[in-house]
Design a protein that fits this description.
Blueprint lengths: L5 E5 L2 E6 L4 E3 L7 E7 L2 E7 L2 E8 L4 E2 L1 H6 L6 E4 L3 E7 H10 L1 H33 L40 E5 L4 E3 L5 E5 L11 E2 L12 E8 L2 E6 L7 E3 L2 E2 L6 E2 L4 E5 L2 E7 L6
Parallel strand pairs: 12-13
Antiparallel strand pairs: 1-2, 2-9, 3-8, 4-7, 4-9, 5-6, 5-8, 10-11, 10-20, 12-14, 14-15, 15-18, 16-17, 16-19, 19-20
Helix pairs in contact: 2-3
Length: 284
Amino acid sequence: MSGTQKVESFTRYTTVRLQAGELLFAEGELGDCMFLIRKGRIAIQKNAPRGLVTISVLEEGDFFGEMSLLESQPRYATARAETDCVLSRIDMGDFEQMIRSEPELAVRMLRKLGWQLRSLTEKYLLLRQQSKMVESSAAEQPEAPETWPGLMPETLGFQTDPGVEAVPETARTPEYGFRLLSGQWLPLPNQDVITLGRTDPASGIFPDLDLSDHDSRRSLSRRHARLVRTPEGYALMEEMGVMNGSFVNGNRVQPSQLQLLQPGDRVTLGMVQLLYDRLPAGVQ
């Protein structure tokens, strides 16, 4: 670490205080710890031909640097304080105790790593299928997608919930969407499972329906909720660990429980207000 960072004891972890603009660590440095943001915002930056580019801004409750802790890898990116910050520094000796005493952090870490794995899996499948298309003759039928360890079921179009029946292909049309208070429509992707939240490239999180531009107060979790297609229509399910909640017609949706949506339902995710309804003619 560099600059005027002040380090002091804080419960069982070490507290690190940064001033706005101060460097925490640089891309490529060796690291042996991770950090949890207690207060403030940290900018995650990558080296580019035109200089450092901010790819994500992390906030209170976020963690970063876990790959250097778990695998002794060089730092993937540069971390710099965007505001005055208070961080908890967690080394390997603290890590096991943290998992036991703060299991929610463990869940969030697994979710983050799962998203990164899913992203790499989808890129791998795309490259494999592109390669097979080049190698196959025009007369051959395209082969079914291959599976490999770590492949997420929804990547292949399977239902992630075993109790949910498959939906006929003829019913799979993007007939529904969300309308914002501004009147803008957000059509739903034509998928069985649709993740809702805000994009975070540093965490490898890219929701299917990105609401980042409509959440000026950053009230949404990165992976806030999901829509699951059922024979009766889409159902909303909140993800575990969401801070600001999900509501349908003013009623809280419980984590991991499906809430079937009906046309005209008011959906509130964090502070983002949406109306679920059929898409008007001409909107796709």
